[in-house]
Fold this sequence. Notes:
The chain has nine helices and five strands. With 217 residues, it is mainly α. A hairpin with a 6-residue loop joins strand 1 and strand 2. The two termini are 46 Å apart.
Amino acid sequence: MAVSPDDGAAIDLKQPMVAMLLAWLLPGAGHLYQGRRFKGVLFLVVILSVYLTGFVLGGGRVVYWSWKPGEQRWAMACQAGIGIAALPAAAQSMLLNGSGKAAMAGGFMAPPVGLNQPVDEGYARSMIARMPSLSEDDFRQQPRMRVWEFLRDELSIWHHDLGRWFEIGTLYTMIAGMLNMLVIYDAGFGPMGAAASERRGEAEGKGSSSGSEDAAD
């Protein structure tokens, strides 16, 4: 149980760990599970709106996992707070950097391909299809290994094509993830702040103190 700082009413947090997990998976879901419908809907709409705005401004390229040396995507530490909306990026990173060397869904939320990074031939052709500035000449074909080595840096291409919108989109998605971390805390531990009864007690204490001082004067 928690106490509302507004009116001192009791708040049933149910299973706090379950609520926190749901709140991480989908903003507001933990509050809906607890019956706190207004907050749940508010968090769902506001946080996902901020996240999706940033995702669109960044051309759908600003949320991806990459922890290779020299290519760490530190922004993902904040973006991961959004929950299930960021999980496809983790799966795409494992696929592209694994033995298959190809991401699904045309590279949706996949990390950028680096200089001399080998990729599957089919994925290389999908890169050419979605980026008009690329051609087969931008790859070194290795028929025996059945891979094509990328001769450019895809992240540089993203920065060139998107300009400042890449950074703005990254910032929006980071803010959304960090906001959801506060929502997760609220779902697990209840709202922060003193209860109304405590505030009234403090006010009454101050009032009696001033009254005593006036009587002494």
